[in-house]
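Re-run requested by the PI after the first attempt was lost when the workstation crashed. Everything re-entered from the original request form. Ligand of interest: adenosine-5'-diphosphate.
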Amino acid sequence: MLSIKNLRASVEGKEILKGINLEVKAGEVHAIMGPNGSGKSTLANILAGKADYEILEGEVTFLGQDLLELSPEVRSRSGIFLSFQYPVEIPGVPMVNFLKASVNEHRKFKGLAPLTAGEFLKLLRAKKEMLHLDTELTNRSVNEGFSGGEKKKNEIFQMAMLEPKLAILDETDSGLDIDALRIVAEGVNALKTPENATILVTHYQRLLDYIVPDFVHVLYKGKIVLSGGKELALELEEKGYDWIKNGNE
Amino acid sequence: MSIISEKITPADQLVSLFEHSRETLNQGSSPILNRMREVSIKRFAQAGIPDFRSEDYKYTNLKPAFEKNYRHELVRETGLINLNEVFKSNIPQLDAHLVFLVNGWFYSGNNPGAELPKGVVLGGLEQIANEQPELIQNYLNRQAGLSNDPFVALNTAFSKDGFFLFVPKGVLIEKPVQVINLLSSDENLMATQRNLIIAEAGSQVKIVVCDVTLSASSILYNTVSEIFAGEDALVDVYTIQNLNNLSTSINSAFCRQQRNSNLVTGIVSLHGGLIRNNLKVTFNGEHAEANVNGISFTDKKQHVDNNTLIEHSSPNCLSNQIYKNILDDESTGAFAGRIHVARDAQQTNAFQRNNNVLLSDKARMQTKPQLIIDADDVKCSHGATVGQINEEALFFLRARGIGEKDARMMLMNAFAHEVILKINLEPLRDRIDELIEKRLNGEISRFHDQLSE
Ligand SMILES: Nc1ncnc2c1ncn2[C@@H]1O[C@H](COP(=O)(O)OP(=O)(O)O)[C@@H](O)[C@H]1O
Ligand SMILES: [Mg+2]
């Protein structure tokens, strides 16, 4: 589904990603771990199409297409979803308007007719129930005045509405209490199918108690320095990131 | 021997026009209007047309506008306007008491008085001043006459007509009164209009004013409105300005509020070459409240300047201002908001905010708040921001599949929304949302362009 080959990228002249290789197939869950500042968010943002980065080398294909050629909106419509580490507040844009525009753009891309107001509300309700979301969030402006946890839940809700092929969840667990974490994890698990894939970006292993990854990769200083199965997360938890740092310096 | 050649300035020309047209101006016009002319033209002659050296016109240069040659309609001309065509020119269609003016002259339209509550007078200033001078004489020029603004003086010297509304004590006008100011001329035209609104104690009225050019010529539109809100009166005045790129609008409003009255104003500067809005609010009694707001959209070389002055002359009053500008291309904007709290005006609450978004590197915005506070027990605040479209929000929307153009539109609508929400008239809010959409997608500009083809 996703294939990253020797991706190098810089921001403001500083090289952040120094040759990333990653293969993600349908049905898989990959966890990308690593200490703060390793470049995890940079990787996630580049996949979603954020323009702040300069691609120095490498290629990324998604479902056979050159992903780096596509605008962020086309990437989204093609099935990429980024759950932001820091979801932005947008006062004055009502959640409902935003979601409706988003869902209908995705439908248009697939050649489907836009949802009627009634159909849209039905879908909204169904997804809210599925995620046990309180109804209040959708009555407000996008993320405006939301708590950290509410913002993250809102991201997962948008994911549920859009049903992406590849979900990239950037630190969706950070700042969540156990209850919120459970809701988010249950949501992600409920949306899991053999046809889609998930990349979990995190620097704690806590989330992985709830969402079990097939592969764990450790990103450090812009490179994947270790890859393994789910046990790798436990080993990291036990030994701490110093283990990686010492081994690499 | 030396020859002193003095250039005849546009101001001199206007003074000379006045002198040659004195009789025409006075003809058919009430003495209430006529007796103000001489002193006003003298004031204008003394002041001239201000340039950047004038503190009040530092950011708005009206000299080029006055250097053009204009036709003047000193007497009513019976131009025929097809009213059915009018609403195609992006004027919001509302369930309202409708009146029309053409180039500053009142046309009765569809007999607006018919369904108005008893005692309400809605009509042309010229006619009412002649027929019911007692309604007007205690109000006309009472506020505007105190102004030092040369364009207000010019207006007073030349004005013959405009719209007039009188709402008697305790009367509520349910439907809004919609005043449509049509500007249309084959040649360049200087139009002068004088409006007067009197809302007596305990009355309620909502007024929607729509200024629109229907031709491609350059129009210099100088309008002065005086608004009186009696004790406990609730008065809303919303204005939508939609002029072509060659036109200039100088729009001055003077509001005087008695005890406990509530005023809401909203000015939407949708399109226009150069727009200068002056708004003065004077509190003449305690516990009065004024919410004055504005939003402007400019592109190309357009310019919009809002100049406000809130005179907190009485204690315990509240004023709230939010002005916003969205500027594209090489357009420019200015906001100067002055709040004056008099020595006795304790317990004043006065808030002001000016937020601006620049969509291009070449757009410029000048913002100048000025608080003059002579009382000690007051709450005042002001704030101004000039920024770009929030790139993070833009990326977020795009990352959810919304195209760049639509995402930008959403963010601009969101920015404008705060001002639109202040409009206490839901159907108007919806119409304005539609107009903003049309403005941002270029439809309004195309309407004006197509008239010049
Ligand atoms: N827009 C940016 N401008 C400047 N530096 C950036 C920017 N984005 C990321 N960086 C830098 O890149 C490095 C990696 O950051 P990031 O990808 O956020 O790491 P992580 O998500 O693993 O904590 C950090 O040193 C960070 O300061
Ligand atoms: Mg990060």
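Saved to the shared folder this time. Residues 90 and 435 of chain B are 7 Å apart (CA to CA).
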